[in-house]
Design goal:
Helices cover 58% and strands 14% of the residues. The strands form 3 sheets. It has a 4-stranded mixed sheet with strand order 1-2-3-4, with helices on both faces. The protein is elongated. The longest helix has 33 residues. By secondary structure, the protein is of the alpha/beta class. It contains 14 helices and 9 strands. Helix 4 packs antiparallel against helix 5, helix 7 runs antiparallel to helix 8 and helix 10 crosses helix 11. The protein folds into 2 domains: 240 residues, no CATH class; 127 residues, Roll (CBS-domain).
Length: 373
């Protein structure tokens, strides 16, 4: 999700990211309005219309985030899509609530309804203000959503977004309510998969109907299909983290450094290793960690010295039987790139962000081969 989105900053401590499908929406508005008016549309008004949609989506997601916060669930970031958003929850919640659907379904329903409610309120307030200030504005004229009348579009963008999100198509809010209902009987991953299947079926229906009747419906179906895939991958990833132990994916053949090593010696060892991060060991005790990048940076700026002078003394450790979910929380909480694995106060392995995806892929293939055998 991060690779297909750009950061817009933070609101109430929540990182807001813009998904690149908004660029597709901008091109779509330009093409459809050009065809409708048989002339090139005003590019500034097209950008303004997309900005109104973006503002409506942001209000929608902030409604979810604030109600979530009141329920004790902190959102780390929100990825804005033209049909709504994908909320990335704090790992301590997302990874610690597997199987809690039966208990939390009412709370999840309240959170899902918060977004459409905010849009309905925004539409009502906008309509009241516009009618009072500019009574000549026809708020019911067709088309409801057009760059030629941005005030009317502000109202209808919120109404469309609220009504659309109440459809029972995951990851729309109606689909989230449906998933909460499923989660009363099955685990969160299976509930998500059921809701995603229904959501993708509705998305394909939108695409087919849109190709025959209204191209806007086809575009909405396209965005809905993408959003469902993003959410499903996120939930599956979280569930996998909760089932994998450190012993399953840790590196057992790794290099270490001593605090008494010089930086040139450390760099020479790094050249002959695939590691980017190294534990620093004094005797049998681990005293720090250092990265290849840190070694190079220190050599360039300070010249040759000792590892002890530039190593980081801030690190976390994990046990062999600890889940990857727990370790991942430790990594992200302090923005670390390596976590040592210990047993009986002895270093037995390491897990780094560099090797994590490679190890997870091999573990998945290994488990698949065992099942087939």
């Amino acid at each position: 999700m991060r690779s297909w989105s750009i950061s817009l900053g933070r609101v109430f401590g929540i990182e807001v990211r813009l998904h690149l499908t908004f660029l597709f929406l901008l091109a779509f508005v330009w093409l459809t309005e050009s065809a409708a008016h048989h002339a090139p549309p005003n590019p500034g008004r097209g950008v303004a219309l997309v900005a109104l949609v973006l503002a409506s989506v942001l209000l929608h997601e902030l409604g979810h985030a604030l109600v979530s916060l009141r329920a004790g669930i902190r959102a780390k970031s929100v990825v804005l899509l033209p049909i709504g958003g994908v909320t990335m929850l704090d790992e301590s919640y997302a990874l610690g609530n597997t199987g809690q659907g039966a208990k939390n379904w009412a709370r999840d329903t309240r959170i899902a309804l918060a977004g459409p409610l905010v849009n309905f309120v925004a539409a009502a307030v906008s309509a009241t203000v516009i009618s009072a200030v500019l009574p000549q504005t026809d708020l019911l004229a067709w088309p409801f959503l057009t760059s030629s009348n941005l005030l009317r579009s502000l109202i209808w963008a919120n109404l469309y977004l609220a009504a659309f999100n109440l459809l029972p198509a995951y990851p729309l809010d109606g689909g989230r309510i449906l998933r909460a209902f499923f989660a009363r009987k099955v685990d969160s991953v299976e509930a998500t998969r059921r809701a995603v299947a229904i959501g993708q079926a509705i998305a394909m229906l939108f695409v087919l109907v849109g190709m025959l009747w209204n191209v806007w419906l086809a575009m909405v179906g396209f965005f809905l299909f993408i959003a469902a895939q993003l959410e499903e991958r996120s939930v599956v990833f979280q569930s996998v983290l909760a089932t994998v132990q450190m012993s399953d994916i840790m590196l057992t053949d790794f290099a270490t450094l001593s605090p008494a090593d010089t930086l040139e010696d450390a760099l020479d060892k790094a050249v002959h290793s695939l590691q980017d991060d190294f534990p620093v060991i004094r005797g049998s005790d681990m005293v720090g960690v250092i990265s290849k990048q840190k070694i190079l940076q220190a050599l360039r700026t300070q010249g040759n010295g000792y590892v002890q002078a530039v190593m980081s003394r801030i690190f976390e450790v994990a046990g062999r039987g600890e889940t990857l979910a727990s370790a991942f929380r430790k990594l992200t909480a302090k923005n670390l790139s390596i976590i040592p694995v210990v047993e009986d106060q002895r270093l037995v392995g390491i897990v780094t962000l560099q090797n994590l995806m490679h190890s997870m892929a091999l573990l998945a293939e290994s488990r698949k081969l065992r099942r087939e055998a």
